[in-house]
Automatic annotation (TrEMBL):
<feature type="binding site">
    <location>
        <position position="164"/>
    </location>
    <ligand>
        <name>Mn(2+)</name>
    </ligand>
</feature>
<feature type="binding site">
    <location>
        <position position="102"/>
    </location>
    <ligand>
        <name>Mn(2+)</name>
    </ligand>
</feature>
<dbReference type="InterPro" id="IPR011650">
    <property type="entry name" value="Peptidase_M20_dimer"/>
</dbReference>
<dbReference type="InterPro" id="IPR002933">
    <property type="entry name" value="Peptidase_M20"/>
</dbReference>
<keyword id="KW-0479">Metal-binding</keyword>
<comment type="similarity">
    <text>Belongs to the peptidase M20 family.</text>
</comment>
<keyword id="KW-0464">Manganese</keyword>
<feature type="binding site">
    <location>
        <position position="363"/>
    </location>
    <ligand>
        <name>Mn(2+)</name>
    </ligand>
</feature>
<feature type="binding site">
    <location>
        <position position="104"/>
    </location>
    <ligand>
        <name>Mn(2+)</name>
    </ligand>
</feature>
<dbReference type="GO" id="GO:0016787">
    <property type="term" value="F:hydrolase activity"/>
</dbReference>
<dbReference type="GO" id="GO:0046872">
    <property type="term" value="F:metal ion binding"/>
</dbReference>
<protein>
    <submittedName>
        <fullName>Putative Peptidase M20D, amidohydrolase</fullName>
    </submittedName>
</protein>
<dbReference type="Pfam" id="PF01546">
    <property type="entry name" value="Peptidase_M20"/>
</dbReference>
<dbReference type="InterPro" id="IPR017439">
    <property type="entry name" value="Amidohydrolase"/>
</dbReference>
<keyword id="KW-0378">Hydrolase</keyword>
<dbReference type="InterPro" id="IPR036264">
    <property type="entry name" value="Bact_exopeptidase_dim_dom"/>
</dbReference>
<feature type="domain" description="Peptidase M20 dimerisation">
    <location>
        <begin position="189"/>
        <end position="276"/>
    </location>
</feature>
Amino acid sequence: MTTTQDRVSELTEQLLKWRRHLHMNPEVGFQEHKTAAFIEAELNSMPGLTVTRPTETSVLAVLRGGQPGRTLLLRADIDALPIHEENQFEFASQTPGVMHACGHDGHTAILLGVARLLSAHPEEVPGEIRMIFQHAEEVGPGGAEELVMQTELMNGVDVVTGLHLNSQLPAGVVAVKPGAFMAAPDMIELTIQGRGGHGAHPEETVDPIAVGAQVVANLQHVVSRQVAAQDALVISITSFHSGTTHNVIPDTAEMMGTVRTFDPALRQKAPQLIERVVKGICEAHGATYDLRYQFGYRPLINTDWVAEQLREIALETVGPEHYQDAKPTMGGEDFSAYLEKAPGAYFNVGAGSEEADSHWPHHHPRFTIDERSLETGVRMLHAAALRLTLPGA
Ligand SMILES: [Zn+2]
Ligand SMILES: [Zn+2]
């Protein structure tokens, strides 16, 4: 009798082929045409799957199991980033300026692997498994939101799960946590309107750079003096543009930044806290401002019982020596859109190692994964597919 272990091992070579093909041919969000066609063709070669395109560049495979059970959604994101790859390996990106620098090539290969394992033995599978290869995780408002709001994908789904490979965790480690896991990534854009003039005569101007510098510094007081230390909040001004030369005080300063929270009440309050600082400083110095605040993905809050089941699955699948309780991160994820509609949990699979030189951070031009993590991902999602679909799971 072949065990799941044997079946996954037989898949290893195929997982590498899939991942490397995708890595060589990256496409950014909403433009994943070749990627979706590739996924669709692979899924169509597996027996018993119903394969459709819920949106132009997403692919859904549905497997109806041979036993009674619940409906589970498994999700992989498929998009790449507008980054020019600096890796030299032979399967590096062939598209200049576009790169799989977040590991979504790995997520896609993993879910294809799970589809192959499940479709080979549908008689063992309870309930219904929907496998969604989601477009545009990296581009707001995000592919998940579109799928959830504009398609039938979530109708009748009882539970949802998915994973992110993580180069900052050792390869093969699985990390799960109940409750708040990833932050809401909201965005600010700010224009400070001063009055330009000669660099030698600041007294005749309203200097938007000097005012902007005060704003940048004082926004950190919102974090440290106006919000309790245990209520996580990050405000980062990540772009500040003003002026053109050394002897002209410019008219305006333009800033962009990100605001990260877990707590919905704090998230709602953050725009007022920020505007109060901007308004006060601008008024004090005679400048005016235009503040634009845009809410991004929701915070990702794992359902406790699903996280607990995934923890048990991890302990059985990779063993206690490769299990960690995950730490919450201020990163954002549009997986949170599915969790608005059904209980579920998201988890991490470690992909970092010295041997694979895969400790580079996500979104870095040298980012890569230790490919052994693909097998870990398949084992986890395959076990989750058989467990979370059990009646009464
Ligand atoms: Zn990313
Ligand atoms: Zn990602």
